[in-house]
Design brief:
Chain B: It holds the Pfam family Response_reg. The complex is a heterodimer. By secondary structure, chain A is of the alpha+beta class. Chain A contains 18 helices and six strands. The two termini of chain B are 18 Å apart. The chains are: A alpha+beta, B alpha/beta.
Chain lengths: 428, 122
């Protein structure tokens, strides 16, 4: 279903902004008010001369009526529908729903995300209770101390003719075990003391780091100014803190190799081409791509998306931008250059890709897979891939088809499809 | 002659308490704390009963029990297994391996005494 269906909603919003009556607009473009009403409620598709006339009457560019930023919302709605196919959501009318009821759409997607987060939290807690070695060890220590105290105290209480040496010895044992019990209990309570913010607690360590970086726009001024290592954001988990520390170390190195002011100027001068920038600064292509993703929009740079993954295709870092977000809970579309780079190590890849969205969803991607860490003899290198993503406008030039994940991808005849789509039966 | 009990447990204060109550009840008590050498200790001086902890340094109580049951001389040696992990799967594992009795911590002294007496008489 084309994105253009939302055009009606935009026409209606613009008309209301201008405080124009429906009949006046209809008369201006030579149609009936009832027909305009159908258009505004996305029940009639329009294009060509009528759309041009409406844009002119509403004093806006044609693009303002036909292009929107609802791609992410539509993806989220489809994902929400995919979570419960039995609910019978009318997938063919997703865009109509988003256009007519943006508030309700936002509520649906937020609740779907909350359900996903809570399910993830339940899984984490279940895994923790069932398999966590630290929890098992803590409980073992507590029970061992309790056992020793109970058994020893029982002797002192029930044995009336115990000699003095044994009595003193058992008192000392009980005291020692009570100290162990106190320490073990404290450690156990500390371990089980979960944060009160359920939403944040449900995040994986990588998501927690990304949430922090997202809030900063992936630009960390305190590292740009010479690496103020004392600035330590508060993260909930040690794992997240460890991941962020590694990211900050890489970021600091990138700052040293590519100082902000000169890199910013060069990026503008070289059209944000990562290969040219890598050559200019004598750094790896991956480093140049990482650095581009940290450039602030306030300096006039476009917002770049960034994704990194390991050899298993697991996303290790991602900067999402409107329309670009690889799923973490479900398998991503393998057609993204990020993943194809893994099969061509050290080979830079540049591809224009197109999501199955009319009027948007086109990106230029730069990707490369490189060994991570130091080389060593007789050991296969650990590979990682990085991909820089920049939104581009459709120009009629060819673009590789990509999707987000199979369940919500409407493409037919895709050789990489893992499972049928919920969007239409043809997409197999 | 007093019957011999070998307590294989790594927590010294639990060893001391069990040793005390069994000694008072007329048993000769030997103790051992290392899982790795537990089977050798049993073979060197076979006891009438073994009290065996599950979580031991070097080798688990389950592995020790498996070795005992695989050895003809100790295949029928009474073993009272103690564990701080009371999960059903641990109990099932112990039973599959041929434990004589399975007891979860924290236990009462009376329960231990009663089990030891009944296992050796049986």
């Amino acid at each position: 279903m084309p994105q253009r269906q939302l055009t009606g909603s935009r026409i209606r919003e613009r008309r209301i902004d201008l405080e124009m009556r429906q009949t006046d607009l209809a008369q201006a473009v030579g149609i009936s008010a009832s027909y305009l009403n159908l258009i505004e409620h996305n029940r009639r598709r329009i294009g060509g001369k009528l759309l041009n006339d409406l844009a002119r009457a509403l004093q806006v560019d044609l693009a303002a009526l036909t292009e929107g930023a609802e791609v992410a919302l539509l993806d989220q709605l489809r994902s929400a529908a995919a979570q419960d196919r039995g609910a019978g959501a009318e997938l063919s009318r997703t865009e109509d729903f988003a256009g007519r009821f943006p508030g309700w759409s936002g509520l649906v997607t937020r609740q779907a995300k909350r359900i996903t987060d809570l399910e993830a939290r339940v899984k984490v807690l279940t895994d923790r209770l069932a398999h966590d070695p630290q929890l098992a060890t803590s409980l073992h220590e507590v029970i061992t101390a309790v056992t020793a105290i109970r058994s020893t105290a029982s002797i002192l209480v029930t044995d009336n003719d115990i000699d003095r040496d044994w009595e003193e010895r058992f008192h000392r044992n009980i005291y020692e075990d009570s100290l162990k019990l106190a320490e073990s209990s404290r450690a156990l309570v500390s371990y089980l003391d979960t944060p009160s913010d359920e939403g944040a607690a449900a995040l994986s360590p990588h998501e927690e780091v990304e949430a922090y970086l997202d809030a900063q726009g992936f630009h960390l001024p305190y590292l740009e100014e010479g690496g103020a290592a004392h600035h330590a954001p508060t993260l909930r988990s040690k794992a997240a803190a460890s991941i962020l520390a590694e990211y900050r170390a890489t970021y600091s190195q990138d700052v040293r190799d590519m100082p902000l002011v000169v890199f910013s100027q060069a990026a503008t001068e070289l059209g944000h081409d990562p290969a040219l920038l890598a050559a200019r600064f004598g750094v790896s292509l991956a480093a140049a791509m990482r650095r581009l993703a940290t450039l602030p929009e306030t300096l006039g740079h476009p917002a770049f998306g960034l994704a990194m993954c390991d050899a298993a295709g697991a996303i290790t870092l991602q900067r999402s931008i409107p329309g670009f977000s690889l799923p973490r809970s479900a398998a991503s579309c393998p057609l993204w250059p990020l993943f194809s780079a893994l099969s061509q190590p050290m080979q830079p890849i540049r591809r224009d890709v197109q999501l199955p969205i009319e009027g948007g969803g086109r990106f230029r991607c730069y990707a490369i897979a490189t060994p991570a860490g130091a080389f060593s003899f007789d050991t296969a290198p650990t590979m990682q891939a990085v991909m820089l993503v920049r939104p581009i406008t459709a120009s009629g030039s060819p673009a590789d088809p990509v999707g987000t994940s199979c369940r919500i991808c409407s493409r037919s005849g895709c050789r990489s499809r893992r499972e049928p789509s919920i969007l239409n039966d043809d997409a197999v | 002659m007093a019957k011999r009990v070998l307590v294989i447990e790594d927590e010294p204060n639990i060893i001391e308490a069990i040793s005390f109550i069994l000694s008072r009840d007329g048993w000769t008590v030997h103790t051992h704390s290392d899982g790795t050498t537990a089977n050798e200790k049993i073979k060197a001086t076979p006891p009438d009963l073994v009290i065996l902890d599950v979580m031991l340094p070097g080798k688990s109580g389950f592995d020790i029990l498996r070795d005992l049951r695989d050895t003809p001389e100790t295949a029928h040696l009474p073993v009272l297994m103690l564990t701080a992990r009371g999960q059903t799967r641990d109990r099932e594992m112990a039973e599959r391996l041929g434990v004589s009795q399975f007891m979860t911590k924290p236990f009462s002294n009376a329960e231990v005494l009663e089990s030891v007496r009944s296992l050796v008489q049986a």
